[in-house]
Amino acid sequence: MTTLFDGTFARGGAAAAVSDAAWLDALLDVEAALARAAARLGLVPATAADAVGRACAEPAGLDVASVVAHAADAGNPVPPLVTALRAAVGERDAAAVHVGATSQDVLDTALVLLARRAVTAIDRDLAVAAEAAAGLARTHRDDVVMGRTLLQQALPTTFGLKAAGWLAGLDGARARLRAVDAALPVQLGGAVGTLAGLDGSGVDLRAALAQELGLATTATAWHTVRLPVADLAGALGAAAGVVASTALDVVLLAQTEVAEVAEISAGRGGSSAMPHKNNPVAAISARACARRAPGLVATLLAAMEQEHERGAGTWHAEWPTLTALLATVGSAASWLAESLECLRPDVDRMAATVAAAEEPALAAAATDALTGRYGRGAAHEAVAGAAHTARTTGRPLAEVLRERGDLDVGALRTAPDTGEAGAQVDAVLAAYDAATGGQR
Length: 440
Fold this sequence. Notes:
Layout: H1 6-9, H2 13-17, H3 20-40, H4 46-57, H5 64-70, H6 78-89, H7 103-139, E1 144-149, E2 152-158, H8 159-182, H9 202-213, H10 227-253, E3 261-263, H11 281-291, H12 293-302, H13 314-341, E4 343-345, H14 347-356, H15 358-374, H16 376-393, H17 397-402, H18 421-436
Antiparallel strand pairs: 1-2, 3-4
């Protein structure tokens, strides 16, 4: 059922990839793969495994209502799902259902499959955002913009370098997610991790199941060693942080008093009370979605403390939490992609802001001029003292500096100096083009 806030918080492919229907599909995919793996090892007849596969491929033929109704009875939905599968395939083929597994084996492996599918969707949206950032970096490589530190005007930089920073962050987040995704493991240990009841074929069955599902295998079950979940949480939290930081830049640059960028998107950004407004809705929504991630990450990390061979409540807390984390990070990535794709920088406004900010450039030039005579530290302190005097007395910095008598203020070069910004933009774009094959 679609809720009132799904348009904001359930956006993009990740939300669909973690729906209830997607969860059921993942659980059935694991049961079907387990039956196939068991048949490959001769543990069950191939005909029985085929019957299980057919039942799993047609969830409409299962008593899903009963599964939902009884999911809480055993603390998770796997026991009623196994009952429904056994009823669907009949007594002859029921031996191929849930071979050697415990509920956690199926649920953890389904969680991994679900996460992998959602991460694929998240990566697609991050890739769109990265491409948009790359386009901004190329187009505005040398366009000056005022750099701001601690929300105060600092020194000029370029919008190209700012966009290249966004691109580097997005690429880094994607790389971390891909590394975690590639290492996601299957779960199979049986009741207490011993693989008892499989006549010595348990380790081989785990490897065969991993191969069926395209997952990594492990030397032992990770029932209470929740590193795979923690790794996912960390990578998703980092991606959310990158998205949030980029979106915040857009929100701040789009403020009316700054007005150096604007989101231009038909049908978005309006106000119910003020018809003139153009709110950066996509960036705002990206921030809103990303802001939910840290609390969810914290819950998953706190849930790592689990008892003996099965977590009592901590394991259970992971399912909805990781589901929500995948959905909210995916929504944030989708919103950021839209924001950057429809972003319109105002290069004239940026340049005017830099030109009007005489004192930062003057302070930098004065420091450089005094460094040769007094050394960098002393020069910095001298100009900082002059700036303080200018602020406290309300006088122009140039006037205070002239009083020193050791500076030709009129001769100081105060044109924007963006240093090696262009070279760094080129380096980021070269790395991006190498990774993407230059395909745009």
